[in-house]
């Protein structure tokens, strides 16, 4: 049923795509996913959380005296109370529904940089995602992405780079294009699925209204989003697919014949309304995210000492809840690094604080670490790319942003 | 289209149901109101489908035929099988857990932090083993009864101290006492550290006690209140605040032994904390008799019809219906009393009742039931227990961690709010995309739903434009989502 291109000429790319698909238990990949091969024994999985990760929900700064007051109805209970976060250190807790992260933390294979930001603080997905992906210090690049340029510089063979999903993310584009062929193996139900679901539900007096209300709920949330968010939400992937994708990626990367870089995306983080706190929509998504990493690590167990997973998002959320019990687009968020070589069990970098005067002018968390410092450290210290090459080709005009030290053992 | 063959009890004449037959018999799908035709299928098939889903965790392809040989017998056998599943043997004991906790307390902040971190990780794994036990068990009805009683005592791992102890409580109290009287279960439950600590009863000291004579002390009503309001007579029970006070006084001195005590980490009765006065409870005077006061009180409470009624109502709501009839409850109460207050007498009466087997759509599956039955329907195995835990958590039911003080709610409506239902449909569709069936989805539907699958739904599954669509429609159908 997969809608593969039906060329009779089996080129190298198609052959590899087939091989990847065979390695995976099925060819259904629910999120955008790309694989590349560079001449290195190291492996890397990069996960882009599109929409803006609410780091204050994932890593609640329980030790910040302003946390409860500033977060209001979104704050998690204090440590004394039922439903409290899991204590990570003096300052930070972990959302209890994201407990699947705990073993990584306890084994000291996970660290996070609590307040990381982009060189621009724009607040729209359009701009933030462009800068996040392009790696330039401002808007208006050449359409290429920092990861694409880094892989090219490290000798990735374009023919071996494979993309699954809807489109090649800008993150992986190279100047002048050339790798924009997408394997359309991602399958979704056919048009009319919603109507068929409705008909099958018709006879049920509880579930039939539940279905229509659920559909209305999803539609209403979409409509309430600002215009910029709406455009973005249209291409949203299911966060429930992340674990499946992560595990498939793990299977591909543990094969011996080449692919060692995977880039995944997951959306559903743009929580403007009713995001919940201890329970609720965001809590379930945090469970899905941490669960995906647990699943990935199981698949990559044999290679774990060579593997680094980076989880990053273009921005965080507003510190205070909005009127709809959600959060609006903010600025700094947390970037997470996990893997065998990581010197984990720590939060790295300084905490800007949640007091009113410590926030940005728009009421968001300030950034204390440029995200590029983390990406540079991973490229240099894990994948072995010289810093000069990174500063020239990957993150131009960013000499002042030094790679963050101390990520690795 | 593959032929699904189903053999009935007697075996005189094999009853064959094929997908094709179903479709031929199916009325016009454009009139979705077409009713379920009960008489179309032999009774054992109906009963097998109901036994497996309403009282178990759903069917794998091929199981319907086996259960159809004797659906009721299949359930009764489970009631009498008291063996412990392999998956949960040799797991941690609450006594050791508490001893380690007290040792860690002596080591200060850092020691306590390390203890909590490792205790939680161990419990995460153990909870996975419990889920795996539920998934693999040849006694799914029994497994569901176990979960029902854990929920009946509404402990929640949401409380950090409780997180590892909720499953310890299940292993040490619920499972060993499931085939005994409710009275014995109650007595054992209130002596378990999980219960004593959850309600802070371990620090309940009477002002009129030897210790109370010397220092300022406090009694804690929480456990006594829970006992009457939720575990026994229920909110409609005829008891007063005086009765709660009386029961509270009886429970003073019921605590957990410290490291230096004769039972470290286990139950202890401290006479020096116990109220020396006589107590009033249920209009009776209880002279000071130490531990025996509460035992006598529980004997009274467990015998009142109100307690039996409340327990039967909860059990019927867990398995049979959101609003069970008085006839069913009465029947279950009678079964309980006839069995001298034995818990399984009530469970047995439930499956002997007619109402339990009505072929109308039953309750909506909880996320736990949905996840396990989906894996079974797709003939798929979880990678490990954590796999099942993660899926349930994503759907809003982190196992053993209800976020409401009353335990997981029993009303179907709780699980189908717009927000949760949107995620549920998305999850079911997603998993249909992950695991395409080898068999035709409509055959799989008949195999795992039997007669419950409505002809109109079967037709929609059969004519859907792709296998993904067909599988997703099967899993999202109300027939699959309900028991």
List its traits:
heterodimer; A: 409 residues; alpha/beta; Alkaline Phosphatase, subunit A; 9-stranded mixed beta sheet; two-stranded antiparallel sheet; globular; disordered N terminus; B: 483 residues; 2 domains; two-stranded antiparallel ribbon; 6 strands
Write up what this structure looks like.
- The complex is a heterodimer of chains A (409) and B (483).
- Chain A has helices spanning 12-23, 55-58, 67-71, 102-106, 125-134, 146-153, 193-201, 207-224, 227-234, 241-254, 281-299, 371-382, 387-394, and strands spanning 33-36, 43-49, 86-87, 93-94, 110-117, 162-164, 261-266, 307-313, 333-339, 346-347, 369-370.
- With 409 residues, chain A is of the alpha/beta class.
- Chain A has one domain (12-394): Alkaline Phosphatase, subunit A (3-Layer(aba) Sandwich), CATH 3.40.720.
- In chain A, strand 3 and strand 4 form a beta hairpin.
- The longest helix of chain A has 19 residues, at 281-299.
- The model of chain A is unreliable at 1-13 and 21-29 (pLDDT under 50).
- Chain B has 483 residues and is mainly alpha-helical.
- Chain B folds into two domains: 5-78 and 417-481, no CATH class; 86-302, no CATH class.
- In chain B, the strands form three sheets. A two-stranded antiparallel ribbon of chain B has the order 1-2.
- The chains are: A alpha/beta (409), B mainly alpha (483).
- The interface between A and B is large, with 59 and 63 residues.
Brief digest:
The complex is a heterodimer of chains A (409) and B (483). Chain A has 409 residues and is of the alpha/beta class.
């Amino acid at each position: 049923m997969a809608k593969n291109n039906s060329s009779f000429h089996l080129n190298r790319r198609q052959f590899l795509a087939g091989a990847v698909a065979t390695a995976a238990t099925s060819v259904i990949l629910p999120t955008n996913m790309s694989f590349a091969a560079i001449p290195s024994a190291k492996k890397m999985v990069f996960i882009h959380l599109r929409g803006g990760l609410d780091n204050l929900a994932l890593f609640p700064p329980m030790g910040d005296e302003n946390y409860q007051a500033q977060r209001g109805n979104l704050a998690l209970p204090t440590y004394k109370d039922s439903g409290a976060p899991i204590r990570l250190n003096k300052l930070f807790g972990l959302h209890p529904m994201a407990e699947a992260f705990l073993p990584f933390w306890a084994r000291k294979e996970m660290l996070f940089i609590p307040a990381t930001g982009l060189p621009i603080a724009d607040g729209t997905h359009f701009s933030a995602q462009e800068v996040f992906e392009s790696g330039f210090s401002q808007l208006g690049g050449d359409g290429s992405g920092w990861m694409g340029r880094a892989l090219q510089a490290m000798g990735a063979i374009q023919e071996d780079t494979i993309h699954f999903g809807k489109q090649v993310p800008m993150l992986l584009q190279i100047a002048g294009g050339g790798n924009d062929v997408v394997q359309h193996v991602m399958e979704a139900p056919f048009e009319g699925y919603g109507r068929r679901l409705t008909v099958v539900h018709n006879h049920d007096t509880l579930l039939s209204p539940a279905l229509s209300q659920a559909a209305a709920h999803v539609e209403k949330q979409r409509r309430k989003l600002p215009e910029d968010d709406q455009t973005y939400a249209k291409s949203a992937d299911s966060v429930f697919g992340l674990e499946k994708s992560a595990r498939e990626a793990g299977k591909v990367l543990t094969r011996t014949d080449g692919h060692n870089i995977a880039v995944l995306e997951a959306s559903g983080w743009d929580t403007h309304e009713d995001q919940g706190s201890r329970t609720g929509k965001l809590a379930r998504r945090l469970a899905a995210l941490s669960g995906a990493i647990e699943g990935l690590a199981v698949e990559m167990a044999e290679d774990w000492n060579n593997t680094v997973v980076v989880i990053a998002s273009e921005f965080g959320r507003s510190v205070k809840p909005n009127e709809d019990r959600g959060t609006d687009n903010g600025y700094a968020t947390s970037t997470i690094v996990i893997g065998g070589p990581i010197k984990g069990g720590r939060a790295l970098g300084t905490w800007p604080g949640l007091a009113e005067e410590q926030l940005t002018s728009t009421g968001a968390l300030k950034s204390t670490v440029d995200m590029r410092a983390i990406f540079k450290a991973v490229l240099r210290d894990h994948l072995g790319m010289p810093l000069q090459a990174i500063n020239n080709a990957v993150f131009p005009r960013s000499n002042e942003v030094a790679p963050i030290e101390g990520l690795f053992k | 289209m593959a032929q699904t063959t189903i053999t009935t009890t007697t075996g005189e004449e094999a009853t064959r149901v094929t997908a094709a037959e179903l479709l031929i018999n199916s009325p016009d799908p454009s009139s979705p109101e077409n009713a379920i035709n009960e008489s179309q299928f032999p009774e054992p098939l109906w009963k097998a489908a109901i036994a497996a889903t309403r009282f178990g965790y759903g069917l794998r392809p091929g199981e319907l035929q086996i259960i159809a040989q004797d659906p009721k017998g299949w359930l009764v056998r489970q009631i009498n099988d008291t063996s412990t599943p392999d998956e949960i043997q040799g797991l941690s004991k609450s006594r050791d857990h508490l001893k380690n906790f007290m040792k860690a307390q002596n080591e200060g902040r850092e020691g306590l932090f390390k203890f909590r971190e490792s205790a939680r990780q161990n419990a995460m794994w153990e909870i996975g083993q419990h889920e795996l036990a539920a998934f693999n068990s040849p006694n799914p009805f029994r497994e569901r009864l176990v979960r029902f009683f854990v929920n009946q005592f509404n402990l929640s791992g949401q409380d950090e101290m409780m997180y590892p102890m909720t499953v310890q409580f299940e292993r040490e109290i619920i499972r060993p006492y499931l085939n005994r009287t409710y009275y014995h279960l109650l007595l054992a439950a209130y002596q378990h550290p999980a219960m004593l600590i959850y309600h802070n009863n371990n620090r309940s000291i009477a002002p009129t006690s030897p210790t109370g004579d010397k220092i300022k002390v406090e009694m804690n009503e929480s456990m006594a209140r829970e006992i009457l309001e939720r575990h026994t007579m229920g909110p409609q029970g005829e008891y007063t605040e005086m009765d709660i006070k009386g029961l509270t006084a009886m429970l003073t001195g019921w605590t957990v032994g410290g490291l230096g005590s004769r039972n470290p980490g286990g139950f202890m009765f401290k006479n020096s904390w116990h109220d020396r006065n006589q107590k009033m409870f249920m209009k009776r005077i209880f002279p000071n008799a130490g531990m025996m006061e509460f035992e006598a009180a529980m004997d009274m409470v467990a015998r009142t019809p109100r307690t039996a009624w409340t327990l039967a109502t909860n059990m019927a709501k867990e398995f049979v219906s959101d609003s069970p009839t008085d006839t069913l409850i009465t029947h279950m109460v009678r079964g309980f009393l006839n069995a001298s207050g034995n818990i399984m007498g009530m469970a047995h009466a439930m499956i002997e009742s007619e109402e339990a087997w009505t072929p109308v759509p039953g309750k909506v599956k909880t996320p736990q039931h949905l996840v396990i039955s989906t894996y079974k329907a797709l003939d798929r195995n979880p990678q490990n227990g954590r796999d099942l835990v993660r899926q349930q958590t994503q759907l809003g039911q982190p196992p053993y961690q209800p976020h409401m003080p009353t335990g997981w709610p029993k009303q179907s409506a709780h699980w189908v709010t717009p927000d949760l239902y949107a995620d549920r449909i998305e999850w079911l569709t997603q998993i249909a995309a992950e695991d395409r069936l080898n068999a035709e989805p409509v055959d799989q539907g008949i195999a795992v739903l039997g007669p419950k699958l409505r002809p109109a739904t079967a037709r929609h599954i059969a004519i859907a434009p792709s296998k993904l669509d067909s599988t997703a429609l099967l899993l999202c159908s109300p027939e699959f989502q309900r028991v």
